Amino acid sequence: MLCLACYGDRLASVLENATEFLLFERNDGQIRPAGHVSLPSKDPTDRTSAIVACGVTHLVCGAICQATLARLQNSGVVVEAWLRGTVELVLEALARDDLESLVMPGCAGRGGPDPCLGRSGKGNGRGGQGRGPGSGKGPGKGLGKGTGRGRKRAGQKD
């Protein structure tokens, strides 16, 4: 049984944000709908239990935290994580055996940052915000409102 962790008509960017699991069966090279599971709870353990209880053997999702990944793998579920795209695109890529074309930007090695960790690298635990000080490395936003006349070039007068 194949499961896509979805948010609307696309893969959820993070497994824990999925609103439903779409189930499919693969037979003779064809992928056919087999139902869905609504997800009332955001608890990762409940979601893992739901996946395993449905007989899922293969999960396709966006980002996934290491603890949830380990629970699923220990239950025998093959996890294809760090993917993006609409349900239609994912099913087409599965039929072509080309999920690599849907890897999230920056996750070429499929070892993206653990979404269960905050920027500080510390787990957020239950009820935590997972927000740390972090520091940006990108260019500034150019929001300065200076009124200067620019730099003078050598030998140039006002």
Describe the structure.
The chain is α/β, with parallel strands linked by helices and 158 residues long. 18% of the residues lie in helices and 20% in strands. The chain has three helices and six strands, in the order ββββαβαβα. It has helices at 44-53, 66-74, 87-96; strands at 2-7, 10-11, 20-27, 30-38, 58-60, 78-80. Strands 1, 2, 3, 4, 5 and 6 form a six-stranded mixed β-sheet that branches. A hairpin with a 2-residue loop joins strand 1 and strand 2 (10-11). The longest helix is centred in the N-terminal third of the chain and has 10 residues, at 44-53. It is globular, with a radius of gyration of 22 Å.
Rg is 22 Å
Largest sheet: 6 strands, mixed
Shape: globular
The beta-strand count equals 6
Task: Please report the number of helical segments.
Answer: 3
End-to-end Cα distance, whole Å, is 76 Å
SSE succession: EEEEHEHEH
- What ranges have pLDDT less than 50 throughout 5 or more consecutive residues? 117-136
Strand content: 15-25%
Helix fraction bin? 10-25%
Give average pLDDT, whole number.
78
Class from secondary-structure proportions? alpha/beta
Structure summary:
Helix content is 18%, strand content 20%.
Keywords for this structure?
about 160 residues, alpha/beta, 6-stranded mixed beta sheet, about 20% strand
How would the blueprint of this fold be written?
Blueprint: E1 2-7, E2 10-11, E3 20-27, E4 30-38, H1 44-53, E5 58-60, H2 66-74, E6 78-80, H3 87-96
Parallel strand pairs: 1-5, 5-6
Antiparallel strand pairs: 1-2, 1-3, 3-4
